[in-house]
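Entry 12.
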Amino acid sequence: MDKLSFRIRELLNYGENKGLFEKEDRIYIRNRLLHLFKEDEYLQTDTDDENCGEDLEKILKELLDIAVERGLCVDSVTFRDLFDSEIMNLLLPRPSEVIKTFREKYAKSPKEATDYYYDLSRASDYIRTYRVKKDLRWKVDCEYGKIDISINLSKPEKDPKAIAAAGKTKSTGYPKCLLCAENEGYAGRADHPGRGNHRIIPLTVNGTSWGLQYSPYVYYNEHCILLNQQHVPMKIEKDTFRKLLDFVQQFPHYILGSNADLPIVGGSILSHDHYQGGHYTFPMAEAPIETGTVIPGYEDVEAGILRWPMSVIRICSKNIPRLVELADHILQNWRSYSDPSANILSETAGVPHNTITPIARCRNTVYELDLVLRNNRTTEERPLGLFHPGPAYHHIKKENIGLIEVMGLAVLPARLKTEIFQELREALLTGGDLHATPTLESHARWAEGLRLKYGDFDEKTIDSLLMREVGYVFVGVLEDAGVYKRSPEGREAFLRFAETL
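Predicted 3D structure (tokens):
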């Protein structure tokens, strides 16, 4: 009891200091926490109001250890996460209070509103900042500017106890997916994360009901998700451009984009309509227009092909309706466009292949849409996708290329921390056998090329060298995903499509 009382006191101090609740709520929240832990007593001391309790990760760990000792929680990452979501939920205001505060702040400034909501999402442990900090992040200079690279270490690995429990859990179909509005406050289960400490901000976008939330795994600053309040499939259409631009008009400090709406090039939950945005300048936003073009009927809209490894048309204007009209014109042309000489077929046996990954932003009162041309064809030689990372890159990146990576931020698998920056690093430094283990074998061809390129490796420089070379691989991945290659033939083929506009 003494240990539990002390940890609850620390948690209450944390919550009050972070502004999660008012002083008048303290006793009420304390009693709800005691009930959660099946405890009827509380050890009151003179230190109840002391300014302690800054380390939330430590406080929650020790509270979860107590819950495990008392048989209230299974000792596994999944079940501990479910339980601590319920702990933090008790410290938070109800959704209506969060919404009210957000709107009051929005009336003063959109940025003040999102600052409040982002701070709340972190302080509430909905965004587990102590895990996100584990991600490895760096930038690499290349011919397209600075590219962002990250190795995602914040998502917990698959939990054997949770997998076993999920096999015995009857699927309820509620919520239908991780993006449904019904996740707000949901306690979770073995096969579905707890969202007790989750709050969603309702928004009207293009006259329809949407919800704003942050990604629990924030791959970049203020990584947000705009989700349809209805569980309907993703679709890229004319209204998509209206929604993207309406959102950035409401929140001009944010960008917003959509994954493509076809498998392979979608890289997302295609069953639920949603967009991703945030307060971040992606490398693609810094890319200049390389080849300008004037599209007949849209002479008032600036347009051109970007200097970027993927195939991107940028259109810019202060006039949102004109941008929407031109974006839809480009989309409709691309949907039906084929060029067999460039391996582009719009459909096979009635199954469509062409779509677009769109991104919207506002820059100095001028609105921009970047329209990334995508095609999801597969062949016998390239069953994962013709415009997908090639086999030579699969040792580093085999997964689909979605919106975030299209914009120049690589989200690479956690395995690379051990495989490249430990095992391969050691083999390169010591001259070890690159085929000694299955892990080394998977990187051997690439690593042999590094030995030819650099010769001997030095302890002081090998890490920066490997980081740079991983970045170069990601650039190659993006070039593979581009429907038009960065070659004279590819440029000529891209211009052939531009002429159809």
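Annotation: Residues 462-481 form the longest helix (20 residues). The chain has a mean pLDDT of 94.
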